[in-house]
Amino acid sequence: MPLSIAKTGQKVRVFAITAEQELRARLIALGIIPGEEIEVVLNSAPGSFVVAVKGSRVMLGEELASQIQVV
Amino acid sequence: MKQQITVALAGNPNSGKSTIFNALTGAHQHVGNYPGVTVERKEGACRHNGREMKIVDLPGIYSLTAYSAEELVARDFIVNEKPDVVVDIIDASNLERNLYLTTQLMELGVPLVLVFNMSDQAKARGHEFDLEKLSGFFKARIVSTVGHKGLGVNDLLDAVEATADGAGPGGEKVVIDYGRETEEEVSRIEALIQAEGAAQAAGANAAGYDARWLAVKLLENDKDVKAKLHSPAIDAQVEKSARHIEEVTGEHPETSIPGHRYGFISGACQEAVRSTIEIRHTMSDRIDSVVTNRVLGIPVFLLLMYLVFSLTFTLGEPPMGWIETGFEWLGGVVTGWWPEGSESALKSLLVDGVIGGVGGVVVFLPNILLLFLAIAILEDSGYMARAAFIMDRLMHKIGLHGKSFIPMLIGFGCSVPAIMATRTLDNQRDRLTTMLVTPLMSCGARLPIYMLLIPAFFPAAWQAKILWIIYVIGIALAIVFAKVLRVTLFKGDSVPFVMELPPYRIPTVRGVLIHMWERGWLYLKKAGTVILGVSILLWAISSYPKKEVFDQDYEGELAKIEERMPAAEGDEDALAALEGRQAALENAQQEEELSYSIAGRIGHALDPVLKPMGFDWRIGTALIGAFAAKEVFVAQMGIVYSVGEADEESDSLRDKLRDNYTPLVAFCIMIFCLTSAPCMATIAVTRRESNSWKWAMLQLGGLTAVAYVLTVLIYQFGRLFGLG
């Protein structure tokens, strides 16, 4: 499922990133990489979307969150 | 043993890199929470054990890919300029993510020293590091520091010195194993690169990189390396290899290679880091659940903005009064140097030109410093990153990025630091769009114009509303232009929002003050250089050439009135009539003098252009002045209507304006000043930041053209409806 529909507090594993190359590289550098477990800290769609990954907090736009496939 | 050691500081945004840089060099520089603040190359120097160290602060980056200018800058610096030591600053409380950059620096094979910064916070959060073990994994010395307290800085310098002298560890190439399939393909590409001699053939650009590194980067789809090697044979092999790896492992090397780097890191951390409990973000998360809340986010944001602006204006008032009094006093002192009645060009230059011109600008310094102080607090505490996110949805609709909102906010203070603040935007299209529309945020320098005109022409009940309308028109125009630019010149999607959310921190007094001062200084520098020069120029062109022969014998007429004065003594009506006649004559003389001056002639020449907007030649001369700095408009109107020292509180000037213009014209002046040519300093900074005259000229020409059309429309329609 796309990360954008994961609920606040849910822990998910990144499966694939379909965003364009430039953004994919940025996400990887921030620790969002296939195989990584991330926690949705806040999903107040259509508002803020925050995930916890590798001990830091990353904010994503809804558009980008929908391009990250998680299980 | 080298006498001068070159040290490059690398690290993630928010790792405290700037703090370490300050602690090392003592340089005054901004320390903030907003990711990506350090974009330019900053240098400093220090001495350690009698040896000179040159410290270069690289931009804050998350990796060494080629996707942002900052990353390329950092990579090229390390490879081309070969610093003796690269110091990688790591936020110890966020170790794994920060070490990702470290692995890439390792792969470049540079002599590396790792700094575990904010080690106090890491300890408080229950992280324990086995530094010796970690040092073994990363083949580099590791130093613990607490940057903002300056702890560990000396140890760091010791480590840098030892590493520069080649006493291991440091500089040994660590090879990360990317797995059998990938390694086979890497060797294949590596061999091809060596065989083709492509690494050499590509010249200085790629010469510093080793073949394995290039091969890995090619598999990662690095456009920059691909362009540097420029070899179709290698490209074909890379494509084949990538496909092969994906077929066998099910993963494209673009993600599997970073995956192995993270694997290496987590392996090392498992061995050498003990974490008791994850408590890092609980407080921040709680605050965020309110301030970034879907319902509360925007109201909280608006409330904070309201506080910022109301504090700026209420707290700024007393110091503004002091500065005004100070400049008046100074003007008085300088006037006193010349005996009463003696007319000296130098006196006029100093009092009217220099003191009047610069004083008019410096008066707004308290307002501007307070606005920058508030913004520095919001930035350093971590709120700005949240605000950028809250605004992103809205900004996205007009084709801008959430981060664009910060420069635009600063634009209400002064466009110059605002345009410099666009550096935080990664994407060039976003950045240029923001730069071009920022002058529409009504800056502090335009306020005196409104303050002069609004009370002169509008009833008290309407004054606040008119001011509000002017600001809103500016914002609305910025939105329209941004949208237009995004569908014409800067086509393409706005970059989706992704940004690290730093934990909230209590800003340090020193950090906030440095930050405020850096921006305030830009404003003050403008007053001291551009505005000083222009004030003198304007004074000269509105004073010269001097008219010797007047159309009317003013001196004679005035003398006659003087003679009749004593006779009229006692008869109040007669006296008033004489005084009125006297004032009218003096005005007429001054007007004639001004018409004769260069400024007057330019004003007259512009008359046909100005007429459709309802402006006369006097306003024309003031608008020329406004191009130097908007606030000059007020001073120039004062000169034109010769009421001595004019400021926005000047009642006599307001009376004169009321006699000569209608409220519609006043409104048109404000609209024109809001929209038209940004001041010279803004054009200059746009030129510098966009690195091209093209955009600066587009900003100048585009905004002025729009201002003209808009003002003409408002004036003509206004007249049609009988408002003129």
In brief, what are we looking at here?
The complex is a heterodimer of chains A (71) and B (724). By secondary structure, chain A is of the alpha+beta class.
Which labels suit this protein?
heterodimer; A: 71 residues; alpha+beta; SH3 type barrels; 5-stranded antiparallel sheet; 5 strands; 18% helix; B: 724 residues; alpha/beta; Rossmann fold; Helix Hairpins; 4 domains; 6-stranded mixed sheet; two-stranded antiparallel sheet; 65% helix; 7% strand
The strand line-up of the biggest sheet of chain B is: 2-3-1-4-5-7
Unreliable stretches of chain B (pLDDT < 50, length at least 5) are 30-39
Portion in strands of chain A: 35-45%
Q: Largest interface, with Cβ-Cβ < 8 Å? A: A-B, 38 and 46 residues
Chain oligomer state: heterodimer
Tell me what portion of residues of chain B adopts beta-strand conformation. Answer: 5-15%
The CATH topology of chain A comes to SH3 type barrels
Using only C-alpha atoms, the radius of gyration of chain B works out to: 32 Å
Could you give a short account of the major beta sheet of chain A? 5 strands, antiparallel
The N- and C-terminal alpha carbons of chain B lie at a distance of 81 Å
Number of domains of chain A: 1
User: How helical, in percent, are the residues of chain A?
Assistant: 10-25%
CATH architecture label name of chain A: Roll
User: What top-tier CATH class of chain A fits best?
Assistant: Mainly Beta
CATH H-level homologous superfamily name of chain A: Ferrous iron transport protein A (FeoA)
Radius of gyration of chain A: 10 Å
* Annotation, overall tally of beta strands of chain A: 5
| Tally of distinct domains of chain B | 4
Instruction: Please tally the β strands of chain B and state the result.
Output: 9
Show unreliable segments of chain A. none
The average pLDDT score of chain B comes to 82
